[in-house]
Specification:
2 copies of one chain form a homodimer. Helices cover 64% and strands 0% of the residues of chain A. Chain A contains 10 helices and no strands. The structure holds a DNA duplex (30 and 30 nucleotides).
DNA sequence: GAGGGCAATGTCAGTGACTGACATGCGATC
DNA sequence: GATCGCATGTCAGTCACTGACATTGCCCTC
């Protein structure tokens, strides 16, 4: 009721998550979210550029963490290792929020419009990472490719990490999944076929 | 005027490209596009799910070509090579359309909403490729990672290919850029640092 | 402690994307 | 040439989003 309740932004985010879960994204009007948060539709749009954005408030902080980590890493490592270190550094943020991450991921998966937004946020993270690599002297196209590979690894690892069911004891952390994903990518781009013993004519390497 | 002019869909696509270029995406109303095509707004929405979709009509054909190529490739190659072969197979389609591709890419780059749509289309291509790999017996997570790597390679190669200015003689084709991008990715994920002679302590390879 | 200023919120009116229901004209079929 | 089906048109409505302006609580200063 009171006009001056604090944390308007968080209230809006919470109300939106609840309503998207209860009724679905399309069936929730912005006015509904605002009403549950004790605010008006107009105020919602002062905090979020559009209806989808309310689910992506954590994005800037994540990006900042990635960029700073890359800048702070010691020298003498492959670009892809710098990128991986950056994503590993976010693990302490995510680890205590696994249930929240799971709920949010489930909502995003329900609507293509939300997946679009998720994809462009990931692309923005990738672009920021590429820029941070360039700032360290990594040349193109290595910077772009390493950051794209990083996004692919992160997507896969995050998905595995979120899906891990509460088997209780043997839960792996995000860092584990990130390292596994990188190892698998390395295996995939290794010069010779990966699965099964050799069974085709040898020929000079790709390209 | 006549109600029964043929090719309504193509007329809408052409009108949209023109108007987006002349006025910009936001400044073009769907009713404007329809009017230029000699149709009504309602008819536009019978052909395209939303205003952005009018720029993405080629997506299903592209996806079909990728999937079929992967299914038809001979056995005994790395998954990533199958993926690359699939993208290479699209080259004859793109090659004669470079000016169109350039114009379209420029429009998409002008508006985040269009980039979002582009990203989700690429993700859909990637998902279809991963599925095609699985149908050939490629296991997870190799199928997903190979298809994601393929998308990254395609994005980079396509960008290079489109940007290539009309220097006249020495234009490279899309296949060239695709192969170059794969080679660069392989170099990035190779066990040891890429640039400069060795200058750090050796240690056993990743993982 | 009255006044003034600032920042967050509210109110209102408008535009345009998108949808459902129903009407209408063109072309083919029997 | 009556009928039918499909592409298109018409109309009305909802909702996301925006700009202009009003209001209200809070803090600072004199």
């Amino acid at each position: 009721m009171a006009r001056w309740e604090p944390n308007a932004r968080e209230r809006l985010e919470k109300a939106a998550m609840e309503l998207f879960r209860e009724r679905g994204f399309d069936e929730t009007a912005v006015a509904d979210i605002a009403a549950r948060a004790g605010l008006t539709e107009r105020t919602f749009f002062r905090y979020f550029a559009d209806k989808r954005e309310v689910l992506f408030g954590g994005s800037p902080a994540l990006q900042e963490m990635l960029v700073k980590t890359i800048a702070a890493e010691p020298a003498g490592r492959r670009p892809i290792d710098l990128v991986l270190a950056a994503y590993e550094a976010t693990s302490p943020i995510f680890e205590p929020r696994r249930p929240y991450a799971k709920a949010r991921t489930a909502i995003v998966a329900t609507h293509p419009a939300l997946m679009e937004r998720e994809l462009i946020k990931l692309a923005a993270l990738g672009a920021a990472v590429a820029e941070a690599l360039r700032a360290r002297g990594v040349a193109e196209p290595a910077a772009t490719l390493a950051s794209e590979a990083g996004v692919a690894i992160f997507k896969l690892a995050f998905e595995r990490w979120v899906e891990e069911d509460q088997k209780g004891d043997k839960k792996k952390d995000l860092v584990h999944h990130l390292r596994a994903a990188l190892a698998q990518l390395e295996a995939l781009t290794a010069p010779r076929p990966v699965r099964g013993p050799s069974r085709q004519r040898p020929r000079s390497a790709a390209r």
